[in-house]
Amino acid sequence: MLPKYFALIVLLVTSYGISAQNRLSDSATSFIVNGTCGECKQRIQKALKVKGITSASWSPKTKILDLKYSPSKISIQQVHEIISGIGHDTEKAKAADNVYNALPDCCLYRDPNNLHHDDEEALEKDDDLVRGAVFQNNDGSKLPLAGASIFWAGTNEGTISDSAGEFSLFRHDSSDRLAISYAGFKADTIAIADMHDVEIVLSTNGELSQVIVTSRSRTSYVDSYSPFRTAVMTKKELLKAACCNLSESFETNPSVDVAYSDAATGSKQIQLLGLSGNYTQLTVEGLPGPRGLATPLGL
Q1: Strand-strand pairing, 267-272 and 149-152
Q2: Which residues of the chain have pLDDT under 50?
Q3: Which pLDDT score is estimated for 283?
Q4: What gap in Å lies between CA 167 and CA 227, rounded to an integer?
Q5: What would the 3-class secondary structure string for the chain be?
Q6: pLDDT digit string (tens) for 40-52?
């Protein structure tokens, strides 16, 4: 049993040593990278998302790139070549003229007439950066929404708001509308156009705590489930014109035809859907009434 435990301890110590060695092998350096604006920053940092580079941060104001990388996976010369390959000069590599000339006008750092963001005020007015804050309306007061999703409409590029509800996002070439969403609130989409600072107030979804559904059937209808044409009359239909005479209770329904058949006795004939009762018997005070040809006139 002892040799097994000893081998396990040796394995754990070796793994820890290798992990510590990998952490210690990462190097940090800083050097100048020429550029002008936030779009340059986005381009440089995106190009350095390669194997061997732990982090890369470039400042448009100082022109300094802070880099953490693993020398065993990538050399510092390769880093300079990657940056010069996208059109930005460094201390050890110069970008080709055709690549540099393909950059947007705002990024042409070799042009002395171009804006270089030498002061903080110019940096704060960077055309490529959109800043804003997301709030909720709480009885007239605004409360910040932390963790709200902000995306360029139709793309996968976006960010989330911080604990103060604030966010910053670089502009996107294919979209100028921001889509904002947060659980429990109505999603909203706004057009940014030339705006640099925006304030967004989301409204809550109006949800009912309880919904009661009531229904009321018609007083008379034709049964659609029956293979025969059957008219159904409920007691509410008969009560519409309630009277001492049953025939008058049918006068409100178009399926029943009520007509006088005998002026002497005041008897009425009731026809259902145009059919008369040929085999019914008419009685007057309990005694048989008209007979023979007059039989169809009674009920």
Answers
A1: unpaired
A2: 1-2, 10-11, 13, 16-21, 23, 115-125, 279, 293, 295, 297-299
A3: 60
A4: 68
A5: CHHHHHHHHHHHHHHHHHHHHHHHHCEEEEEEECCCCHHHHHHHHHHCCCCCEEEEEECCCCCEEEEEECCCCCCHHHHHHHHHHCCCCECCCCCCHHHHHCCCHHHCCCCCCCCCCCCHHHHHCCCCEEEEEEEEEECCEEEECCCCEEEECCCCCEEECCCCCEEEEECECCECEEEEECCCECCEEEECCCCCEEEEEECECCCCCCCCCCCCCCCEEECCCCCCCCEEECHHHHHHHCCCCHHHHHCCCCCEEEEEEECCCCEEEEEECCECCCCCCCEECCEECCCHHHHHHCC
A6: 888 999 899 888 8
Query: Which pair of tokens denotes residue 257?
Result: 């035809």
